[in-house]
Amino acid sequence: MSKWFYFNFFLFILALWQVVTHYSFPCLSMPVLFGLIGFLFFLFNWTRNAVFSTIRNAPSRNMKMKLANLSKKVMPFHRWTGTCALLFILVHVSLIFQWYGFSFQNPKMIAGLLAFINLILMVATGWLRLVRPTGKLRKIHLRLGISLFLLIALHLLL
Ligand code: HEM
Q: Which residues cross the membrane (predicted)?
């Protein structure tokens, strides 16, 4: 199994932990609710990376076929789930701005802003690959995914 499954699981637990220990829990505040839903859409898409990584390293052909078929079924929705993540995070950010405003002194907001810009680029390169399916764009899309993972982890930790 790819190490990304463990990393993703860790990020999932971290997000859940931050949400259940939030002062508004169990009546989640709207910014947190939208942040969580957007995060879950992102994580669902990013788990495909873990599946691909497992396919590359799978010892048996049978296992490779099973995982590849599963990934193929989810593929038609990949761009749309990514776009949904962006839309939910857009609402999360608007609500945060309305409730708290924005401050460059707040590290959580800086990490969030960088993650948001990264997410926009991630979704944009995802759609661009539909018109220009080049290897270079695939690599950029993948690297954006890794940096987005790290920025979201930072945003949640701060
Ligand atoms: C990809 C982008 C983003 C994701 C996935 C995301 C996700 C989340 C999640 C799941 C939470 C709830 C858990 C926690 O409190 O740590 C949260 C909280 C928060 N986010 Fe984001 N966020 C993103 C972008 C942003 C941006 C751009 C800002 C502001 C500039 C921001 C500001 C905040 C703040 C201030 C909180 C705490 C809210 C509170 O305590 O009431 N986030 N975010």
A: 5-25, 31-55, 76-97, 109-128, 140-157
Q: Measured in angstroms, how far is the CA atom of residue 116 from the centroid of ligand 1?
A: 10
Tens-digit pLDDT profile for residues 127-149 = 999 999 999 999 999 999 999 99
CA atoms within 13 A on the CB side of 102: 11
What pLDDT, in 10s, does the model give residues 72-81? Answer: 877 788 999 9
Is residue 35 lining ligand 1, measured as CB closer than 6 Å? Answer: yes
Domain locations along the chain:
3-157
Q: Which atom of ligand 1 is nearest to the CA of 102?
A: 30
- What is the average pLDDT across 48-62? 83
